Amino acid sequence: MPRKNPDGTRDYSYDTHYEASAAQRKNRSERVLARRELASEGKVSKGDHKDVDHIKPLSKGGSNKRSNLQAISAHANRSKGNRSK
Questions:
Q1: 31: which strand partners?
Q2: Which residues contact 76 (CB under 8 A, 6 or more apart)?
Q3: Angle value at C-alpha 51, between 66 and 26, nearest 5 degrees
Q4: pTM of the predicted model as reported, rounded to 2 decimal places
Q5: For the segment 35-54, what is each residue's pLDDT rounded down to a tens digit?
Q6: CA geometry: angle at 21 spanning 75 and 78, to 5°?
Q7: pLDDT tens digits for range 6-37
Q8: Alpha-carbon distance values, 83 to 31, 63, 71 (Å)
Q9: Which of 54, 60, 46, 61 is nearest to 30 (CA)?
Q10: Where exactly are the structural domains of the chain?
């Protein structure tokens, strides 16, 4: 959540530093590569409201290998949390 400046405006500097960190740039790069892989297979396309889902979440030891990726609706992906199947 953004912090407030003394004048009452929001301070988004934390978000800027967080997104610029080496770990977050690496995570973003891996997500982009996973989406490109499914896009090359015709599973997803720009504006189709689909997300690339990790069947076994990265936070639970999953990988970015093709066998762990699937294309599902953005709503379904974002509502499931980090539950693994």
A1: none
A2: 53
A3: 65
A4: 0.68
A5: 999 999 999 999 999 999 99
A6: 10
A7: 888 887 776 677 777 888 888 888 889 999 99
A8: 19, 15, 16
A9: 54
A10: 11-79
